Amino acid sequence: MEINKLVQIGLEELDPVLKNPLDEVYKILIEKFQVSKLDILMNRSLEISNQEKEEYLRILSRRKKHEPLEYILQKAYFMGMPFYVNQNVLIPRFDTERSVEILVDYLEKESYHSMLEIGVGSGCVSVYLAHKFPQSTFLGVDISEEALEVANKNKTDYKALNLDLFQSDLFENVHGTFNVIYSNPPYIPTSDMEDLEPSVLEYEPQMALDGGLDGLVFYKEIASKGKKYLDDNGVLVFEIGIHQLEEIKAILEKEGFENVSYSLDYQGIPRVVWGEWRGECYV
Ligand SMILES: C[S@@+](CC[C@H](N)C(=O)[O-])C[C@H]1O[C@@H](n2cnc3c(N)ncnc32)[C@H](O)[C@@H]1O
Fold this sequence. Notes:
There is one protein chain. This protein is α/β, with parallel strands linked by helices. It is 39% helix and 19% strand. The chain has eleven helices and nine strands. It has helices spanning 3-14, 21-33, 37-42, 50-64, 69-73, 96-107, 124-132, 145-157, 198-201, 217-226, 245-254; strands spanning 76-78, 81-83, 114-118, 137-142, 163-167, 178-183, 230-239, 258-264, 270-277. The protein has a seven-stranded mixed sheet with strand order 5-4-3-6-7-9-8, with helices on both faces. Helix 1 (3-14) crosses helix 2 (21-33). The longest helix is centred in the N-terminal third of the chain and has 15 residues, at 50-64. The protein is elongated. It binds S-adenosylmethionine. S-adenosylmethionine (SAM) binds next to helix 7 and strand 4.
């Protein structure tokens, strides 16, 4: 069948259910059949085999049920790099790239060369940073063994040998101290979970989203316990949810963190909050 016809079928199938059906159709064809957008636009009679057509139709029917394209294609882009994903991990979000910018600013300083990430998920943040800073050491933990399998695959794909990964409920199995601790923990208040979009609610792991009664449970635990795992002058960096800035700043200040600062995401929403730890003797 001609590729042009596949584009048409895709639009007919996805238009009633999705916002940008043409974008999605292009993404599927480009990722799945190794064609370029130019091929699709200029070489409209390019032949696609029956087997490929069947596969394309199967993808469309999954996407029609709101399954995220990233899970169907088992690939998500983060910081411009492809990462393997499946339904055991949160799909890396564009907003999380703001956290990476703050972490890079610290890791570029001479005295910041070790980082612990609590809740690595796909590993996108730690793998990206370990790849970028081969002389530094990284530890990523997650409570989910299934998520760690995904993170390990990404670690291997990017040859990030300076990243260690293991299972831990928060700091339970963590030893040693670090210059940087980072977490993008589950932060949706339990009562808001049911308002999430179907593609998130039905497909993404609840364990990666549900932040307890007020959505702040993980921030409180990590800020309070994390001090013991930070070197003097270390920094604790959090990705935060919408409307959580004031509460999380207060949590960090109450725990004795200094220079508490924040940055906005690309929509102007406070998204990253961090505080510096001078050491127990200064509190
Ligand atoms: C919001 S996701 C963030 C994933 C990844 N860091 C990212 O930004 O794409 C939160 C992660 O925390 C993990 N998690 C939940 N509870 C945890 C706990 N008690 N200890 C460690 N990790 C936990 C989840 O399995 C999930 O992978």
